[in-house]
Structure formats: C-alpha cells, structure tokens
Amino acid sequence: MTGPAERPADPDTAAGQWLAALGGQPAVTTVADPKPPTGAELAERMDLLAVPGQDREEAAAGLPDPGRDPARWEALIRCHQQLYADPGPDVPSAAPDWPTAPAALGSAGRYFYVHLYLLALPHALERQRRLGIPDGIVAATFADLGAKLTTYRLGHGTGGFDRQGWIVRHFRGTLHRLGRLQFERGVLDADTSGGDAAAAGGPAHGDPVLQVHIPGDGPLDPAGCDASFAAAREFQARHFPGAPHRHATCHSWLLDRQLAGHLPADSNILAFQRRFTAFGARPVGDDDVLEFVFHTPPGTADLDRLPQSTTLHRALVRHLRTGGHWRTAHGWTELP
C-alpha cells in the first residue's frame, strides 16, 4: 500500500468502463465503509480465508490505497455496500452482478475481488458472532475463498480469482460448511430447476430448502456425508429457527444418472446420488464437468490432453469422446 499513485484508467478503455460501472453502483449509506487493514490485520484475514502462500504477496501488494488509487478504492467501497445491502442473514437474496475485471488491469484486476473480501471480512465475522456460529464452522466456511484461488491457478496458470458471485453467500451468512458438505439456505425455484417435486412428496416452488454444495477437496465418502446431513437440520434449527427446512436439494453433474453406466456400483458418487430423488430438467453440463474436475475454463478443453489417472477421469472423457453429453441434474431428499 505504498508506492507511486495509480494512473487513472482511461474511461474509454475496457478497464475504465469496468471501474466506472463498479464505482457507479448505487450508494448504500447504511453500510459502514471498510478501512484499509494494517499489515498484521491483513495477514490474519488471509489466514482465515486460507489464501495460499503463493498468492499472498501479489494480493497484498495490489491492495489499493484510498489516496493513491481512488478509482479502485471507490469501486471496492461500492461493491462492499452492495455486498451487505441485503435483507439480512435470514433472507436469501440475489448476488450482485459483478463482472470479472478486464485483462488489461493485470494482477490488480485478477485480485480485485480478493481485495473486496479481505476488506469485507470484519463485517462478515460480526454477523457470524451475532448468529452464534462456532469458530470451527466459520473457519471451514470462509476457507472456500482460498480453495477457489487454488483452482483458478490450476485453470489459468497464474494467480487470480473469478468466483466473486459465489462467495457472496459465505459473507452474507446464507451458506455454511458442515463437515464434508456445504448447505445454503434458499427456496426452491421451479423455473430454474425445470419443475418442482411436490407431487412426489418433495418441495414445491417457493418452499424453503437447504441447497447442498460439494466442495472438491476430497472423496464423497458416505460416512462423511451422513455426518453432514445429520448436522444440517440441527444447525439450521439452532441458528436460524425462523425458517424450518424439511428438504435439501442438489443441482450438480454429480447427480447425472448416466454415471451409473461408467462407474463401479459401490462408488462414492453413486452412493451420493442414491440419497436424492430426481426431478426437474437436465441441461447439458459438459462445461461444469470440465471446469470442476479438470480445471479447464469453458471452451478451452482438449480431450486428448486431459488427465486419465482415475476411473472418473477416464469415464468422463470416454463419454465425451463418443459424442455424449453430461447433464446437470436436480435431486431432493428429506433431511434426517
């Protein structure tokens, strides 16, 4: 946060337009503006967000100073205001539409949203304290930002972060990691899912549901998943008693029933599928498979160069080679 003042971005360039768009978001005067962290505070925040060591120096060096980098600082302030301009932790709301920075901004753009979340962390932690969330769950939840930095480097070969919309959930307090799985409070949107499950005893459109997300940091072992589901209902009842949840839903390529024809019957993925009753649409999900399994950004995959080191790798690529498509499937289950 020292050094020469940043040259203002030309408003006619992509970078200038991007900064102007973010800086022009509506002001929210009820949200207190963040302050630049000290060196010790910054290190503590990076620890809690599990920022990988190879990203820390570059991310810290690019954190803008309000006096020297006014355009980037104002853009961060407006994003911070929009981040917390929601109805509150009991009411899920849509994530802001924040575009990824133009390549011309280089490292400052690739880490822009990391800077946002570093600045926003104190407010998020205060929310967690008010809700009484245990420290271990808080740490496991916020470590997801570091995980996304890791996958960005795997996919792009350089440091950066492009999951700004995803991490909104963590900071607003609607998503928590409970053991192996993440659970996000929401409602079933039949339009997005392509239908509801009311006729089969599942959730109807507009019903509160816990949306299940699967971090990519380990096997989906049944015992770990059992423990997560067992913890979820108690956690929600204790910390969010105003919105009881009977059902959980999952929307993922991991629920594609085609996998049964390619994986051993006792595989963890198939065991996970059996927890859910299928419903709704099944749109093509090839890009999700390639990105989340092989860390290849959409439109960049070369099937001949993808790793083939596991049964899952070989099954996924073999199906694509033969002209098949993987599907994003929807499922519901009753919480235990």
| SSE series | HHHHHHHHHEEHEHEHEHHE
Query: What percentage of amino acids are in beta strands?
Result: 5-15%
The strands making up the biggest β-sheet line up spatially as: 1-2-3-4-6-5
Structural class: alpha+beta
The N- and C-terminal alpha carbons lie at a distance of 50 Å
Principal-axes shape call? globular
What is the number of strand segments? 6
InterPro entries: GNAT_C, NAT_N
Domain GNAT-like C-terminal: 175-332
Domain N-acyltransferase N-terminal: 41-173
Organism: Streptomyces globisporus
How does this structure look, described?
The structure is a single chain. Strand 3 (208-213), helix 11 and strand 4 (247-252) form a beta-alpha-beta unit. It is built from 14 helices and six strands. The protein starts with 13 loop residues before the first helix and ends with a strand. The longest helix has 20 residues, at 112-131. The mean pLDDT is 93. Strands 1-2-3-4-6-5 form a six-stranded mixed β-sheet. Helix 4 (70-83) runs parallel beside helix 6 and helix 6 runs parallel beside helix 9 (164-172). With 336 residues, the protein is of the alpha+beta class. The protein has helices spanning 14-23, 39-48, 53-62, 70-83, 106-110, 112-131, 135-142, 144-156, 164-172, 190-193, 222-239, 268-273, 286-294, 311-321; strands at residues 175-178, 181-187, 208-213, 247-252, 277-279, 329-334.
